[in-house]
Amino acid sequence: MNELCNFLAEPIAQRSLWACAAIGFSNGFVSALVVLRRSSLQIGTLSCALLPGIALAILLFGFMQLSILLGAVIAGLLVGLGSLFVSRTSRIDHDTALSILHTTAFAIGYIILVRLGLQQKVDDWLFGNIMSMSNTDLLIAYLTGALAVLSITALQRPLLICLFDPRAAATMGIPTRAFSYGIFSLIILVLVSSLQAVGAFLTLGLLVAPAATVYLLTNRAGWLFWGGGLIGAGGSVLAFFLSFPLGWHLGATIILVLGLIFLIAYIFSPKYGLLAKKQ
User: Fold this and answer.
1) Res 227: pLDDT
2) 100: which residues sit within 8 A by CB, 6+ positions away?
3) Which ranges does the record mark as transmembrane (predicted)?
4) Residue 5, Cβ neighbours under 10 Å: how many?
5) Quick check: is 275 in a domain?
6) What is the rounded distance in angstroms from the CA atom of residue 49 to the CA atom of residue 45?
7) pTM, two decimal places
8) How many CA atoms lie within 13 A of 105 on its CB side?
9) How many angstroms separate the Cα of 218 from the Cα of each of 59, 112, 227, 262?
10) pLDDT in tens for each of the 279 residues of the chain?
11) 5 occurs within a structural domain
């Protein structure tokens, strides 16, 4: 207990705790869009496609945080939109095109980073390291999270109409295509801002599990946003306090805790989970 108190007195621990709460909330909030769009696997695929953008940004501009962020965003958008273009101009379906492009992009990024002698940084980007987040990383995560939460809150009604009934949205004058690209871009931004915290391999859990848990407990779509945010933040903070005494990797512990919360909701949900099947 004394060791934990001493650890919490350290500035790095306090920064990490705030990062867990803020990043957990913003990802949990945005996870509602991923669940409602039924695009979990696509987003998970795109998370690994960010690596070549990071690699090229470092190769061209060095370790500049802004260039790394922009490189990751551009890589994610190019792979995502490129796969859509390939699927629309060939016999290949979207998932197949996305799989080919993202694995190729990941291989290119990995080769460049290893050639640059950045093996340790590769591990951080793949699995995350909240403790090593710089002030710039934290600022980017906070601003991106705030932008996502405010934008979704302000446009929640037209967003839900576009997600559930695009034709009705079009007849109401809602720019469905712009909203679709906007949702996609917003998810990519949140994905990139969380990369340093939980890594490309684990970020999918943070962008899916919170809202998926709420989805087991209610059929009201609006509750997925705030409920997902609270579960994302609460689960991340709980993981922070568990990882220190257990000596576990913090990013992996966050995803493990969120997975266990989802499992509990699945078992005890009276209407939509495991108990409903036994009735």
Assistant:
1) 93
2) 83, 92
3) 16-36, 43-62, 68-86, 98-118, 138-156, 168-192, 198-217, 224-242, 248-268
4) 8
5) no
6) 7
7) 0.82
8) 28
9) 47, 46, 10, 13
10) 677 677 777 778 888 888 899 999 999 999 988 888 776 667 767 777 777 887 888 777 776 666 777 787 788 778 877 877 788 788 888 778 888 888 888 888 888 877 877 766 667 767 777 877 777 778 888 888 899 899 988 888 888 888 788 788 888 888 877 887 788 778 888 887 787 777 777 787 888 899 999 998 888 888 899 999 999 999 999 999 998 888 888 888 999 999 999 999 888 877 665 555 554
11) no
What are 167's two structure tokens? Answer: 């034709």
Tokens at 245, concatenated? 């005494």
Asked if residue 279 belongs to a domain, the reply is: no
Alpha helix stretches (DSSP H) within the chain: 2-8, 11-37, 40-48, 51-61, 65-88, 94-115, 119-127, 135-154, 156-164, 166-171, 176-193, 195-206, 209-215, 222-246, 250-268, 274-278
How far is Cα 79 from Cα 49, in angstroms, rounded to an integer?
A: 7
Tell me which residue of 54, 90, 97 sits closest to 74, measured CA to CA. 54
CATH classification of the domain holding 259: 1.10.3470.10
Measured distance CA(105)–CA(49) in Å, rounded: 6
| Tally of domains within the chain | 1
Tokens 């997600």 correspond to 163
Rounded to whole angstroms, the Cα distance separating 133 from 136 reads: 8
- Could you tell me the residue range of the domain that residue 151 belongs to? 12-268
Q: What token pair was written down for 279? A: 């009735």
Please report the pLDDT score of residue 184 as a whole number.
77
Residue 202 lies in a domain: yes
